[in-house]
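lol forgot to send this yesterday, sorry. C-alpha cells for the thing we talked abt
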C-alpha cells in the first residue's frame, strides 16, 4: 500500500531524504554523550584524568548537544515541508479524480464521504508522513544502536531488555489489530456526521420554513453520539498503551537497578558504566514507546489510506472510449437522436426509468419535454451530455454515439441549465464567464439581455461586479434562473438544454427569453423541460412522457387531438388556474 503513495512524495524528495538523515545524525550525537559522561565519572572524577579530561569531554558534549539540536530542528523543518507537500499533491490528485466521476460515481461514494476523504483522511496521512520521516526513523535507529551499545557496556545486564522489549512488542501488535477495525468505523462515523451537517446547511431555509430545527438537532445528535461512541471505543484501547509501556519501563529500570547495583558492588561494573547504561536503557524504552504510538497512528492512517485508495483506484462509471481523442468528430449541427434507449439507476429500485425510447430531434428545432413528476424528463436530457450512460440502446449527437466522443468535446457542444440552479461565490461577471471565459464585454451584456437579466444586474450596487454569495443566496430564485440561462447562452452551444429552468419567472419574462432563443440562437437546438403548457405550446415538437415511455409526440395542436393525457393536462391548468402539471 505504501508504494502507491510514494509518487506524491517525489516532488519533495530532497526534504524527504534530509529529514531522516538529520534524525540519524541527532541520534548518533545523543548516543555518544552518555559515553563521554561515563568517562567524566570513571576517569575524570574517580580516575587520574582530572580537570583537563573533564573540560575536554564537557566541551565535546556541548558541541554534540548543539549539533543534535540543529539536526533535530532542521529535521522537523524538512519533515514538515515533505508532509505538507505530500498532503497538497494527494489532495490535488483526489480532487482531479473526483472531477472525472460521473453522477453515479458521486452517488455511490456520497459527497459527504468524499469531503471527509479529501480533508480528514488526507490530514491523517499527512501527519503520518511527518511522523514517519522522524519518529519511525529515530525510534528504530535509537533502539538498535542503543541495544548494541548496551551489549558492549554489559552484555549480561542487556538480558533485562531482551526480556522486556518482546513483551512490549506483543502488546503493541495486539492493540494495533484491535484498533485497526475501530479506526475504520470511526472514519465512517465522521462521514455520517458530515453528511448530516452538509444536508442541514444546504436545506437550512427549508428547515427554518417548516420549523424543523428540533428534529434536525436530534438527527445531528444521533450522528454526533455515534461518532463519540466510535471515538471512545478506539481511544479506550489506545490509552492502554501508556500504562503498559510505563509498567514495562519501570520493570526494566528495577531489573537494571537490582542486577546493575550488584555488579557495581561486586566490582564487575564501574559506576559510570551503570550511569550510561541507565541512559541507554531509557533511550531504548522511550524508542519503543515512540515506535508504539507511531504504529498506532499508522493503524489509523492505514484505515484512512484504504479509503483514499478506494477513490483513487475507482474506475469512473463514465470515461473516454479508447481512441476517442484521435477520432474525427462530426460537424456541429445540434442533431440529437435516441435509439431504443432504456435506462435505470444502479442505486434505485431496479425498475426502468426510461423504457425503449426512440426519438429524433432535428438541428435548430425547439423541442419541449413535458410529463408528470418522476416520468424521467430530467433523466432523458441527462443522457445527452452523458452524465449517465444508457442501460440499453444509444444516444447520438450529430450522428455519433455520445460514448464515442471525448467527454470534454461532447459537453463543449452542449449548454445546460440544470434543474437545480447553481451559482458560485464570486462576481456576477465571473459566474457568467463560466459560459465562455474568452467572451467580450459586449457578448456578456448581450447574453444578459437575452436572458432578461441585464436590468436587475444593473440595479445591483456594483452591476456585473456585484459579489454573489455561495450558491447565489443573495439573489432571488427567478434572478438565479436568468443568470444561469445567460451563462448557458453565452456559450453559443449547438444544443441548449433547459431543465425546468424558467419555473420561477413570470410568463411575460419567459416569453421574452423564448423569443431571444429564436432571434439570437438560430441554428441552436433548444430542448426545454417545462411544467406549464404556456411554456411549450409554441415548440416545434412536444414530447409527452408518462411512466417511463413516450405517451405522445407532436405539436401542441396535434397532441390536443391525439393525446387524452395532454388534453387532461391542458384542462387542469386552465380550470385550476395553475402553472404546474
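and heres what i got for the seq, position by position
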Amino acid at each position: 500500500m505504501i508504494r502507491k503513495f510514494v509518487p506524491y512524495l517525489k516532488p519533495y524528495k530532497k526534504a524527504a531524504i534530509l529529514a531522516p538523515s538529520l534524525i540519524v545524525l541527532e541520534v548518533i550525537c545523543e548516543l555518544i554523550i552518555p559515553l563521554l559522561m561515563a568517562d567524566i565519572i570513571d576517569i575524570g572524577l574517580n580516575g587520574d584524568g582530572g580537570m583537563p579530561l573533564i573540560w575536554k569531554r564537557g566541551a565535546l558534549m556541548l558541541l554534540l548537544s548543539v549539533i543534535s539540536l540543529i539536526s533535530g530542528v532542521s529535521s522537523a523543518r524538512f519533515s514538515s515541508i515533505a508532509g505538507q507537500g505530500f498532503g497538497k499533491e494527494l489532495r490535488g490528485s483526489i480532487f482531479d479524480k473526483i472531477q472525472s466521476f460521473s453522477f453515479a460515481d458521486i452517488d455511490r461514494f456520497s459527497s459527504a464521504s468524499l469531503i471527509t476523504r479529501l480533508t480528514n483522511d488526507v490530514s491523517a496521512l499527512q501527519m503520518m508522513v511527518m511522523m514517519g520521516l522522524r519518529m519511525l526513523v529515530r525510534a528504530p535507529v535509537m533502539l538498535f544502536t542503543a541495544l548494541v551499545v548496551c551489549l558492549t557496556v554489559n552484555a549480561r545486564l542487556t538480558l533485562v531488555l531482551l526480556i522486556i522489549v518482546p513483551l512490549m512488542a506483543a502488546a503493541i501488535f495486539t492493540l494495533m489489530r484491535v484498533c485497526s477495525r475501530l479506526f475504520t468505523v470511526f472514519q465512517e462515523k465522521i462521514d455520517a456526521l458530515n453528511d448530516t451537517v452538509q444536508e442541514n446547511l444546504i436545506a437550512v431555509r427549508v428547515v427554518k420554513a417548516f420549523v424543523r430545527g428540533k428534529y434536525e438537532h436530534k438527527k445531528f445528535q444521533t450522528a454526533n453520539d455515534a461518532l463519540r461512541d466510535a471515538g471512545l471505543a478506539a481511544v479506550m484501547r489506545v490509552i492502554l498503551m501508556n500504562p503498559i509501556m510505563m509498567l514495562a519501563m519501570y520493570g526494566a529500570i528495577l531489573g537494571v537497578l537490582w542486577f546493575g547495583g550488584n555488579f557495581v558492588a561486586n566490582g564487575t561494573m564501574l559506576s559510570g558504566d551503570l550511569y550510561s547504561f541507565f541512559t541507554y536503557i531509557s533511550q531504548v524504552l522511550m524508542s519503543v514507546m515512540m515506535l508504539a504510538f507511531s504504529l498506532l497512528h499508522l493503524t489509523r492512517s492505514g484505515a484512512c489510506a484504504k479509503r483514499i485508495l478506494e477513490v483513487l483506484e475507482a474506475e469512473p462509471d463514465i470515461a473516454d472510449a479508447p481512441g476517442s481523442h484521435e477520432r474525427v468528430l462530426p460537424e456541429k449541427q445540434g442533431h440529437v437522436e435516441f435509439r431504443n434507449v432504456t435506462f435505470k439507476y444502479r442505486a434505485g429500485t431496479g425498475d426502468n426509468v426510461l423504457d425503449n425510447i426512440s426519438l429524433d430531434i432535428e438541428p435548430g428545432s425547439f423541442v419541449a419535454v413535458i410529463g408528470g413528476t418522476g416520468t424521467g424528463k430530467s433523466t432523458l436530457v441527462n443522457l445527452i451530455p452523458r452524465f449517465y450512460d444508457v442501460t440499453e440502446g444509444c444516444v447520438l449527437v450529430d450522428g455519433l454515439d455520445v460514448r464515442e466522443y471525448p467527454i470534454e468535446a461532447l459537453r463543449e457542444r452542449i449548454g445546460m441549465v440544470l434543474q437545480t440552479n447553481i451559482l458560485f461565490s464570486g462576481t456576477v461577471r465571473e459566474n457568467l464567464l463560466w459560459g465562455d471565459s474568452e467572451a467580450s464585454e459586449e457578448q456578456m451584456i448581450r447574453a444578459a439581455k437575452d436572458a432578461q437579466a441585464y436590468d436587475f444586474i444593473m440595479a445591483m450596487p456594483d452591476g456585473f461586479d456585484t459579489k454573489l454569495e455561495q450558491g447565489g443566496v443573495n439573489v432571488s430564485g427567478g434572478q438565479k434562473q436568468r443568470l444561469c440561462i445567460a451563462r448557458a447562452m453565452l456559450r453559443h452551444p449547438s444544443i441548449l438544454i433547459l431543465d425546468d429552468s424558467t419555473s420561477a419567472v413570470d410568463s411575460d419574462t419567459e416569453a421574452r427569453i423564448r423569443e431571444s432563443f429564436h432571434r439570437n440562437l438560430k441554428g441552436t437546438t433548444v430542448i426545454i423541460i417545462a411544467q406549464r403548457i404556456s411554456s411549450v405550446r409554441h415548440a416545434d415538437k412536444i414530447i409527452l412522457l408518462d411512466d417511463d415511455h413516450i405517451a405522445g409526440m407532436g405539436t401542441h395542436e396535434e397532441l390536443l387531438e391525439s393525446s387524452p393525457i395532454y388534453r387532461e393536462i391542458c384542462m387542469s391548468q386552465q380550470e385550476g388556474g395553475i402553472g404546474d402539471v
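The chain has a mean pLDDT of 84. anyway ping me if u want another try
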